[in-house]
């Protein structure tokens, strides 16, 4: 396949839209998917969002992170502009770091049913402590379930230095 045509993109409402509206409250309905036209092979898709923000649910103070989202697609891909707007919708969302990564992963599983997915939030320190929650999922009964278990047990074998933030 050399490219996509209008028929394969007809369900997208955000990409190319010059009147983008930003949601200031968490909204998973923003997410949109497109067909994966390369289902015959495994490949990783990785999104890096270095400007992720959410709020502490107790104090309302902002939390900043780089959010890493990697997945092996099955039948669907997440559309990147919709993902960007969805991640922006966390801007005024009050939740703990661990909740944010799990919510993102669950919403993407619901949307695209990937073979494998992982979400890693690398939050900047507040009060001298950084929190880097990681979660993953592999489709049950497949090699990806074993892959998820292996990656979870080995995902942070070489932690970075504190001076790299």
From TrEMBL:
Biological or metabolic pathway of the protein: tRNA modification; tRNA-queuosine biosynthesis
Main localisation: cytoplasm
Keyword tags: Cytoplasm, NADP, Oxidoreductase, Queuosine biosynthesis
Single GO MF annotation: preQ1 synthase activity
E.C. number(s) listed in UniProt: 1.7.1.13
Active site: 56, 63
Record function comment: Catalyzes the NADPH-dependent reduction of 7-cyano-7-deazaguanine (preQ0) to 7-aminomethyl-7-deazaguanine (preQ1).
Protein's cellular compartments: Cytoplasm
Catalytic activity: 7-aminomethyl-7-carbaguanine + 2 NADP(+) = 7-cyano-7-carbaguanine + 2 NADPH + 3 H(+)
Protein name: NADPH-dependent 7-cyano-7-deazaguanine reductase
Binding locations of substrate: 78-80, 97-98
InterPro entries: GTP-CH-I_C/QueF (IPR043133), NADPH_dep_7-cyano-7-deazaG_red (IPR050084), QueF (IPR029500), QueF_type1 (IPR016856)
Family as reported in the entry's similarity comment: Belongs to the GTP cyclohydrolase I family. QueF type 1 subfamily.
């Amino acid at each position: 396949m050399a490219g996509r045509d209008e028929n394969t993109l007809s369900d997208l409402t955000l990409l190319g839209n010059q009147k983008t509206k930003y949601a200031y409250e968490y909204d998973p309905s923003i997410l949109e998917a497109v067909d994966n036209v390369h289902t015959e092979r495994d490949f990783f898709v990785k999104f890096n969002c270095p400007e992720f923000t959410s709020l502490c649910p107790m104090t309302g103070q902002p939390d900043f992170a780089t959010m890493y989202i990697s997945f092996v697609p099955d039948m669907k891909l997440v559309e990147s502009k919709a993902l960007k707007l969805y991640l922006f919708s966390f801007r005024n969302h009050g939740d703990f770091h661990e909740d944010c990564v799990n919510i993102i992963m669950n919403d993407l599983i619901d949307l695209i049913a990937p073979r494998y997915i992982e979400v890693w939030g690398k939050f900047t320190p507040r009060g001298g402590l950084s929190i880097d929650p990681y979660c993953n999922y592999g489709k049950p009964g497949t090699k990806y379930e074993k892959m998820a278990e292996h990656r979870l047990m080995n995902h942070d074998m070489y932690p970075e230095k504190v001076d790299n933030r």
